[in-house]
Amino acid sequence: MSRNSESIDENMICSEFQEKVSEVLIRHKSILDIVTKLDEYNARINRAVMKSVTSCGCISIEASKQKYNKETLEELRESLENHVNGELCEVCSEKIEAEMGAYAFYLASLCNTLGISLTDVIIKELNNLKTLGVYSLK
Ligand SMILES: [Zn+2]
């Protein structure tokens, strides 16, 4: 499969996901429910990540002040730490993925409510990243 056909498939998956979300969202149709559900699942993602550290132990976090003493942004990107040691086990990975999936559901719901294409959002962000590269400063 060529790189271009992969991109097209990914775009179609995003559109299909947004359409399916619009078909099944009933109980939390109000924008008030959607934005508070987004907050809830953001917290649940963070909680699942922290439980991977404190309950499971498959990953640990060892954080300290970042050192911004490099000449270029490329050097800086390579030198900065993510502060995570280890790798997620299968159980923790599945739990975090499930929470992220629910988050994506409500993000797509918010897009539907406001008439925004999730695919367009991702494409615009991707184009910004391609244009600005490391200068996007994210
Ligand atoms: Zn784990």
TrEMBL record:
Keyword tags: Coiled coil
Coiled-coil regions listed: 63-90
What species is given as this protein's source? Anaerosalibacter bizertensis
UniProt keyword annotation of Coiled coil present: yes
This protein is called: DUF1573 domain-containing protein
